Amino acid sequence: ILCGLFAEVLGVERVGIDDSFFELGGHSLLATQLISRVRTALGAEPTIRQVFRTPTVAGLAAALRSVDGTRRAITARPRPERTPLSYAQQRLWFLDRLEGPGATYNLPVALNLSGPLDREALRASLADLTARHEALRTVFAEDSEGVHQVVLAEARPELSVVRAGEGELDRLVAEAVRAGFDLSRELPLRVTLFETGEDEHVLLLLLHHIVGDGWALPVLAEDLAAAYTARLGGSPPDWSPLAVQYADYALWQREFLGAQDDADSPMGRQLAYWTDALRALPEELTLPTDRPRPAVSSYRGERVEFEVPAELHSAITHLARTEQASVFMVVQAAFAALLSRLGAGDDIPIGSPIAGRTDDAVENLVGCFVNTLVLRTDTSGNPAFADLLARVRETDLAAYDHQDLPFERLVEAINPERSLSRHPLFQVMLTFDTEQTVHDRLDGAMPGLTVTERLTGTGAAKFDLVLGFAERHTADARPAGMRGALVFSADLFDEGTARGLVDRLLRVLAQVGGGASVRVGELDVLGAEEWRRVVVGWNGSGRVVGS
Asked: What pLDDT is recorded for position 72?
């Protein structure tokens, strides 16, 4: 059974009992999926730490013998008169009320559709989509007792059709992406169809983060394609019913976590861990900015894209496997080392999103499950990179074991000095995923249409820096390079500085990929021209120093 579960999660034909989960392309997100499937199939729930320490089928099978019990499953349940928000939704609602509607928490997916499009089938499929996922027909009402979810019995997003003339498309899409939502009255999914020519369209699906996350976007697109295909054939989609809805998850989350003041509840235990782990955390990370931090952030962001070549990807993957870590951990350690070398100190908090889909029942559900972990990286003592990576590994595994505490509850407990100019607890974020795009889910899935994904951003930056990677692998699970992007706050950085940070990070990764014995203080963060300017230009004496 475990061999089959490993193969299913990793997307390979077969797994032997001694094959390593991570050597077959596994990472922490897939480890969470594996744990969920093991819980469902075997009634035992290993931790991510156990998967890392015993990453083979044989090793995990032995570890499962000592596992005692599982967490309560997410199931459909009777709805109270007032359905609470999940903790993530509660924070997003608060931020919406504090800052007002805007693009900061909009999640866009734009699809180029080439071929004959049946608009009536598309409209019907939108109705199917909102009927399937309650979150898409949820509004948020506020009364004397606070805010609560209101699931509308029947609702569908309007399909707005816009004619885009030559040279207008980019501007029109950008305007649509940046338009805010009225969460109290408006459905959190907005759909616009841009007509660019005969049988040429761009379909924009705009989702508010309060009902979705990065994992939800491919689910949304895949279900839309299935419904469209069925409607072309004159029938509704033949879906298997969803086991639960997002409101069930919100109710389960509060029931499972328990009270914050109960030391024996999951909430109490995890809160105790995090408050200790983040004691005396720096209020603000010192970064090599081009401008002082403004009193109030504008959330204006820009983006620099880059590639990690397959050879470098292979080198850091080999390093990760040698040190029993993940590629994410290698990149995190390198990023922290770089920031430390650039003057950020030796206590580097880095935020990282975690999928939060710890139960099979919600894997294909549209909703906001993502949580944020604060990964505190200690670069003190000029450690060898291998030692820094070991520190990162232990910190991250402990964080994954305590991933259920909502970030918003952590902020309340730590109670850092509040500021409208910076994010609390951390200001830089690292994201990591496999490169499975919306396009991968839709390739060939909409009859008569060629579908490609159109890169579309909101132009917003919630953090000072967000460094993101998406891994690519060959059919036999070998590293094939990584797609990267650095989103930076335009309040603080110029594009040239952001590109310089990317170049320095790639330089650091190349050095540690060549040998993990190099010490943090020995990492060369200067390019050849910078080195010449500093050593020869600025400091050149023109004198020969004798012995």
From this structure: 78
CB atoms within 10 A of CB 524: 15
Distance CA 319, CA 313 (A): 10
pLDDT attached to residue 73:
85
Q: Is 260 helix (H, G, I), strand (E, B) or coil?
A: coil
**CA torsion angle 455 461 462 466 (round to 10):** 70
SS3 166: coil
The pTM (predicted TM-score) of the whole model is 0.88
Note whether 152 and 120 are within 8 A (CB).
no
Q: Can you tell me the distance from the alpha carbon of 355 to that of 332, in angstroms, rounded to the nearest whole number? A: 18
Stated as kind and residue range, the H or E segment containing 439 is helix 438-442
- Residue closest to 131 by CA, chosen among 215, 187, 183: 187
Task: Specify the DSSP class assigned to residue 292.
Answer: P
488: amino acid identity, one letter: F
Sheet containing strand 428-434, edge to edge, reads 301-308, 479-489, 465-473, 428-434, 347-354, 371-378
- State the chain's mean pLDDT as an integer: 90
Q: At residue 427, what is the residue type?
A: Q
* Mean pLDDT (whole number) for 242-268: 93
Q: Dump pLDDT digits (tens) for 154-189.
A: 899 999 999 998 889 999 999 999 999 999 999 999
List strands edge to edge, sheet with 450-454: 159-163, 189-197, 200-208, 106-114, 450-454
Q: Tokens at residue 417, please?
A: 């000095």
* Nearest C-alpha neighbor of 91 from the set 433, 532, 405, 430: 405
Q: Which two tokens stand for residue 368?
A: 């906001």
Q: What are the residues whose beta carbons fall under 8 Å from the beta carbon of 505, sequence distance 6 or more?
A: 334, 335, 338, 467
Given phi > 0 = left and psi -120 to 50 = alpha, else beta, which region is 345? left
If we measure between CA atoms, which residue out of 378, 322, 376, 347 comes closest to residue 512? 322
The two beta strands, 159-163 and 189-197, are parallel
- Enter the tokens of residue 93: 């609602």
For every residue of 263-330, DSSP letters joined together read TTSHHHHHHHHHHHHTTT--SS-----SSPPPSS---BEEEEEEEE-HHHHHHHHHHHHHTT--HHHH
Write the DSSP symbol of residue 500.
H
Exposure letters 297-325 (e unless 16+ CB within 10 A, then b): bebebbbbeeebebebbebbbebbeebeb
DSSP code at position 536: I
Nearest residue to 225 (alpha-carbon basis) of 448, 435, 8, 433: 448
CA–CA separation, 334 vs 326, rounded Å? 13
How is residue 536 written in tokens?
């020869």
Residue for token pair 């475990």: 2
